Amino acid sequence: MKTLIAAYSGVLRGTGSSILSALQDLFSITWLNRSKVEKQLQVISVLQWVLSFLVLGVACTVILMYTFCTDCWLIAVLYFTWLAFDWNTPKKGGRRSEWVRNWAVWRYFRDYFPIQLVKTHNLLTSRNYILGYHPHGIMGLGAFCNFSTEATEVSKKFPGIRPYLATLAGNFRMPVLREYLMSGGICPVNRDTIDYLLSKNGTGNAVIIVVGGAAESLSSRPGKNAVTLRSRKGFVKLALRHGADLVPTYSFGENEVYKQVIFEEGSWGHWVQKKFQKYIGFAPCIFHGRGLFSSDTWGLVPYSKPITTVVGEPITIPKLEHPTQQDIDLYHAMYMEALVKLFDNHKTSFGLPETEVLEVN
């Protein structure tokens, strides 16, 4: 009898050991799957924004026009009526939604690269600011994540400051896309909008302008740190007219996330890009990232490379209702010097050699 009990106990001990081992294996498999699911969610969150940016406006326009020819024509009529009534809202800062800015999808977006925001100095709520964002990259992904969402906690790092990322005004003529952009605090990059935000919207406003624009995007490629700035002085004039402080901002890694076909000066491709830039306001780029399911294939998903956006020290700007060219040149030179200094002070912290030089064109 004792022998039987001992044998039975041995079996139970063996069974318990086997169950424990099986549970450990199960948890390790679950964790592995969870990790993979997390990565796929990050990829999908980035892809949805890329596709929204590239095709949402055009797709919604086509769908609404088609709806006019169906039994659901009233939906299209109501939306276009609303669009006409709401046409000038983007020029007044849009309709920011804290709910949209705090969506969980943006945290997956942030973690995919990952993206981080580095604060070097405080921004006072009693002042208004123009943040010059450099470089443009292909899509300005760091600018979007840091200033149009709360994924990197911009509102906690700069309490009382309302960021407005400025982008092409044409985007706000696209149905549905305009609502999506405005919900994140994105506004048109034109004089009327910026004048309103810096003069009729109180203080604590920070307008983020990607200064290099389409011209800078054409030179975007991995390993290159270059900005288009020497002839870009309009943002300095705006700052002087409103007494808004200028804040140099550099995004390390912005150029690393896409590879682009660079057309040489004088080639047909470069000619086409320049014509688009001149007459439409943007330059079409031939670029690629990785595929949806594999980093070894080509696709529209950007490469998973770190992007670190460093917000520099504000340059105090006086309010001059009619700034002279000499005034503009003086503060433009101060801004360029501050941007180069910001780059030099932080470049080694983000993987660049001490010998790396910021090319200012």
Automatic annotation (TrEMBL):
It is a multi-pass membrane protein. Its main location: cytoplasm. The keyword Transmembrane helix applies. Coiled coil: none annotated. CDD domains: LPLAT_MGAT-like (cd07987). The chain crosses the membrane at residues 43-67. This is Acyltransferase. It comes from Phyllostomus discolor (pale spear-nosed bat). The gene is DGAT2.
